[in-house]
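Researcher: Here's a chain I'd like modeled. Treat it as a single chain, no partners, no ligands.
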Amino acid sequence: MNSNLFEIEDLRASGDGTEILKGLNLTVNEGELHVIMGPNGSGKTTLASTLMASPSYVVSKGRVRLRGEDVTDWPTDVRAKAGIFLAFQYPEEISGVSVIQFLRQAMSARKGTEVSALEVRFSLMEWMDRLGMDPSFAQRHLNQGFSGGEKKRNEILQMALLEPEVAILDETDSGLDIDALNVVARGIEEVRKQKPTIGIVLVTHYQRILDLLSVDKVHIMIDGRIVETGGPELSQVLEAEGYGKWKI
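Model: Modeled as a single isolated chain. Structure tokens:
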């Protein structure tokens, strides 16, 4: 697989009047899993939010393309329908809306047609079993009272059912114990098996999840730019040596 699925070209974006992304470039081909690592304040979460058209950030230059189509000016809901998915670092609670209700609405929007409750329930139960989630989870209000691990597994559950073209996972591994980390990593790989063309951009601080995934490229992000790209071994260099040699 080598067709360009998702392209970020010379992207510059600001938040509260301060430029955070300073000419970032990244190309993800079909079926690839890219990892972005960088110190605090390097712009990783800004990048994830900007790719989903967060109103907190203003793009001043550059292009974002999905399968060659310019989506830079598209609002969040249109990007989601087109197949761009964001797993949040801190998923929000939505009182009064159950997991299954939320997923039915989201799946219907993604497919452009009404999805039956039976279809949602069937897929939901299958994936909850894969992710080690209690079936009663489907009736709980979205993220309300969820543990950190439950919230992160719920994000992977959403990714599985929505079958996006591109998934941006913003620190999905943060705050997880080793058991939850294994479940989340296994879930990511299961989604890749189900949809082999999916492109994934995983933002993380930690090398440990990379040991559980089949990673294609690791990027180092410093001060709003990607300053080096390599294979999975690059994360091991970071683990041993830190970011010192890349900081200006």
